[in-house]
Predict the structure.
Amino acid sequence: MNRQLIRTVVQALCLVLTLLGFFVNFAWTMGIIMLAIIIGGTFYCGWICPFGTLQEFSNKLARLLNIKQKKMPKAFHRIFKYTRYIVFAVVGLSTLPIIMDIMSYEPRTAFLSLLSGNVPAVLALGVIVLFTLLSMVYERFYCNYLCYEGAKYGLIGLFRPVTIHRNIESCIDCGKCDKSCSMNIEVSQFEVLRSPNCINCFKCLDACPVDNTLEYGFKPKKLFTKSYRLLLISLLIVIPAAIMVLAGTDDHHEAEATTSNSDYTNVEISGMPSEHYADGTYEGVGGGFKGNIYVEVVVESGLIKNVTVTDHNDDRKWYNMAESIIGDIIGTQSTNVDLVSGATYSSSGIRDAVINALENAVTEETNTNSSNHLETAPAGETTVDVISDIPSGTYTDGTYEGVGRGFKGNIYVEVVVESGLIKNVTVTDHNDDRKWYNRAEGIIDDILHAQSTDVDLVSGATYSSSGIRDAVINALEKAN
């Protein structure tokens, strides 16, 4: 049986399933994974984790390219193999925004976010590339020394009943199992391997030259030792107590969230049109830290009355911080609010989900007015008087600059006119999120093809596409 071939196929399959959302949006899959960890160790890290797979595939590519492989010096590894547990403790216990901001660039989660269709920040992409390149020389460098999620799973599977066993009588102490280990574990020093660093890659089993010396399975005689029974009893006492505390915290937070939302229920903002949105209940979706965030938005008398997050997969700690953005949105009657420091991914996901919902709530009257009336921009930003359209073929040749209002600020364009026609439109600056802007950019082709700004806005990116269109209109006013 070729274990490594089977594992490679499973890793590739799980990567595809992650792309399809099976390991992002479904809680039951993680429940099955957690059960497997408790019984048999960290299969998630060795068989499923997308970033672990990326590191492993990059290492295989390096071997094919004959790039020299290195092992961390034992002195270094013995000290720094504990760093991921320190990171796990800091992330779990700290509430400092700076810690949350740093963790937003964590490569494992950033890569998962990328697979979910959300483009991470440039720095986060750089971190992904850095550790992918490191893994070409030092196998699974990030998993070994920094992955706090792997540390968590390793601790959960610390008392697993099914694990790797070494027959000390048949072992010839060749050390091949130690050399083959991706996580630099000295397998030859264990009779029963329950190291929290083990990812169940089974490379040690394949490397062992003596049959039945290393085996993965369940051996009752080695399971119920006195020390193991004491640890297991302690665990059975501690885990239910921890669950009760965490459940109480979540219930308390949900009660606080309901109160904070109700505080804003009857807020009416001066200057906000009373018929800004069509009354009704609307659903929206946005990309969070660990997958999609779904919301339900209630509009009454043209105002946002309530926002409820109906489903999300983000860690409770980050989500708790991010949820305060709901009060800001309802209080200002606008989605143009600051993201929550330390929980930018989750708060951005909530905000984008509300935007997505409200796109369905914009009335026809509002859409018409947005093309013919003055839009109010935040202090310090240019306000553009938008007209509905400029006839084609009436422009003076030249290059003209224009500005329009996007979702997160002004959008600046440069319009080139030749022989009285619009030859090119270039967006020179904008602040909108890449995800929405990428969709909106298609409106440029529509303008060039139609030789007119009287084109449809891009569904799902109305704010950004409206900003580009209005900036082109602003530029063409100078070309008359």
The two ends are 76 Å apart (CA to CA). The CA atoms of residues 91 and 298 lie 35 Å apart. Residues 245-275, 364-390 have pLDDT under 50 and may be disordered.
